[in-house]
Amino acid sequence: MFYRPSEGHGLPHNPFNAIVTPRPIGWISTRDADGRDNLAPYSFFNAVAYVPPQVMFASTSAKADRGDTKDSVSNIRDTGVFCVNIVEYAARDVMNASSATVDRDVDEFELAGIDKAACDTIAAARVANAPASLECKVTQIIQLEGESNFAVFGEVTGIHMRDDCIVDGRFDVTRYQPLTRLGYRDYGVIKEVFSLTRPDD
Locate the Flavin reductase like domain: which residues (predicted)? Predict the structure, then answer.
């Protein structure tokens, strides 16, 4: 099968998200200019550079009370900072609860019953028991093609790692089993890993 996205795929559901998988989930916590916390998951998320460490996430829709975007991007525009919390399999239900479309003044930490902790290098909250959290200052926000599509890039200024995830000096993802986003309403979980040596190593 071949299709041009501009002409449609003819299938019952869009296959694009199912093709580009698995995707890590960036559970983005922000704080608005009035000090209200927000938490929302984004599956268009990844690390993009080592030195300095940098990450990105993309927001692809808008809310009526935020104009051209959603709460996360709107808050980041105002404050210039955000935190990426890594999602473990055990947090799948509360992560999903935090994805609800609610009014801008609703704190998703409270809505979903998620414990929060203060960040160290930025003025925002983080998921207290997340396997890892990356505190970030914005480097750029890029408007992408299409309505309400924004890519947010940030430099990581502080990193929290849960002690039980560090094994023999390495961050061991099998200790918490990362949740990943697939297509449609599907998710995956990482339970096993293997190593490959590059030819030039």
Answer: 18-173
In angstroms, the CA 126 to CA 144 distance is 27
* Helical H segments across the chain, by residue range: 16-19, 71-79, 92-97, 108-112
Q: Is 197 helix (H, G, I), strand (E, B) or coil?
A: coil
Decide: 37 and 107 in contact? Cβ < 8 Å: yes
Note the pLDDT tens digit of each residue in 163-183: 999 999 999 999 999 999 999
How far is the C-alpha of 41 from the C-alpha of 96, rounded, in Å?
8
Backbone Cα Rg of the chain:
17
Domains belonging to the chain, first-starting first, are 8-189 (2.30.110.10)
The DSSP code sequence of 115-135 is -EEE-SSSSSEEETT-SEEEE
Torsion of CA 184, 187, 192, 195, to 10 degrees: 50
pTM higher than 0.85 for the full model?
yes
Quick one: pLDDT at residue 166? Answer: 98
Tokens of 24: 């890590």
Handedness of CA 104, 48, 128, 122 (dihedral sign): negative
